[in-house]
Amino acid sequence: MRNYVLFSRLFFSPILWLPTVTKLMTDDETITRALAEIATTAHHYPGVAIVLNHDGRQVLYMSARGLHALQITIPELVAMGEEYYVRYFNPEEAHEYVPKVVELLERNDLGYSVSFFQQVRTGPGRTFEHYLSTARVLVQGQQGQPLLIICLSCRIEPDSHLSTKVQRLLDENAFLRRHAATFASLTGRERQILSHLARSRSSGEIAETLFISTQTVDTHRRNLRHKLGASTAFELGQYARAFDLI
After folding, report:
1. Who's near 146: CB < 8 A, 6+ residues apart?
2. In the chain, what are the helix, strand and coil shares in percent, each to the nearest 5?
3. At what angle do helices 233-242 and 161-184 cross, to 10 degrees?
4. Which of 9, 102, 193, 199 fits a 20 to 30 Å CA distance from 35?
């Protein structure tokens, strides 16, 4: 309990842990001080603490737990630059978390944080593992601009039921991105029909609900299969789930 309270104060308070930072300090001095403060307390955190530069493109600090998992040193991480993301993260997920980090920087609010799932692998040839990450601006410079971003990443146990749900969510998001243009080509009526088909309703039931003939329903069914390139009910259901029709 004591460690949890300490972590809460350190991570979520924008000012408590740096009470003596003043405008007299240069930005470089503020960065040095902030990194030193984090390094003295990071072992209390329940996940991997990562500090990024002002635009999030370079890792400046990582706690011992993360360094051990990646088998790397802080100087090596700093020198790696943006290669860090290429080496350890699933590039297909950048569409999910990059806009959130951009929003974080644009808001530039020390009290605002963003959370997102990431798939991380600790080395070449290794499988991706799910992490839940939370990030916020850590300190600001003399002109009020973001200087550092702090991120806390916690591994989701593979055997947890949550891991399965996260993977399902990520798969649906990836499906949505790949097929957004195709789905946009459907008419309003076709989307209605798709919603009913995904609920395993027959042509007769759909016709009765929408006050149309069964022949019209069957025509829409054929058009849907052609437009979506779907040959099975499961494939039609994928579209319905991904685009919130059921």
Report:
1. 54, 55, 105, 108, 137, 140
2. 55, 15, 30
3. 90
4. 102
Domains present along the chain, CATH in parentheses: 2-162 (3.30.450.20), 182-242 (1.10.10.10)
Which one of 154-163, 217-226, 235-244 scores highest in mean pLDDT?
A: 217-226
Q: What is the pLDDT of residue 13?
A: 52
Q: What is the mean pLDDT of the chain?
A: 86
Torsion, Cα 99 102 104 107, to 10 degrees, reads -120
| Residue 98: alpha-carbon gap to chain centroid | 8
Contact present, 85 and 136 (Cβ < 8 Å): no
**Residue 30 · residue 21 · CB < 8 Å:** yes
What one-character DSSP code corresponds to residue 127? P
Q: What is the DSSP letter of 128?
A: P
- Per the confidence metrics, is the pTM higher than 0.85? no
pLDDT digits (tens, 9 = 90+) for 158-215: 766 666 666 677 677 777 778 888 888 999 999 999 999 989 899 999 999 999 999 9
Report the relative pairing of strands 113-120 and 146-155 from DSSP bridges: unpaired
Check: CB of residue 26 under 8 Å from CB of residue 44: no
- How far lies 53's CA from each of 122, 167, 179, in Å? 22, 29, 35
